[in-house]
Design brief:
The chain is of the alpha+beta class. Helix content is 26%, strand content 33%. The chain has helices at 31-37, 53-65, 90-94, 113-121; strands at residues 12-18, 21-24, 41-42, 47-50, 69-73, 80-84, 96-102, 105-110, 125-126.
Length: 129
């Protein structure tokens, strides 16, 4: 008799360790969950920032309780792409955790590997670290 895996797959939220904290970007349909995470929300960058390991652990526990799979990304290299500043990259910017200009390029750290692939399809190049 065939066996079926009925375990519901939990959505992964990548939490990136960057120079001055831990960051992630995600849209939550659950207003109660967003309210609990609001102290960590950077409205101008549309992302969440935890400045300390304690804050990160608190947020990860909450996300886990709410059915998400929070994953820490220590090395964002495989999530990093660059694209010409003269290309339309607004959609990529919305789905990046961090971005910064570098000469005539824009460097973006995408929120997940699916968006890395999307960025490449839109003309970005994986950044060699």
């Amino acid at each position: 008799m065939p066996s079926f895996d009925i375990t519901k797959k939990r959505p992964i939220i990548n939490i990136f360790k960057l120079r001055d904290g831990y960051y992630f970007k995600h849209f939550f349909d659950d207003p109660d969950l967003f309210r609990q995470l609001e102290p960590f929300y950077e409205k101008q960058r549309y992302r969440f920032k935890m400045a300390t390991v304690g804050e990160r652990n608190k947020v990860m526990k909450l996300l886990d309780k709410k059915g998400y799979d929070p994953t820490i990304i220590e090395d964002p290299g495989s999530y990093t792409v660059e694209i010409s500043k003269y290309t339309k990259y607004g959609e990529l910017l919305k789905n990046s955790v961090e971005s910064y200009p570098l000469r005539d390029k824009m460097v973006l750290i995408m929120k997940d590997l699916a968006w890395v692939e999307q960025a490449v399809e839109l003309g970005a190049v994986r950044r060699s670290v």
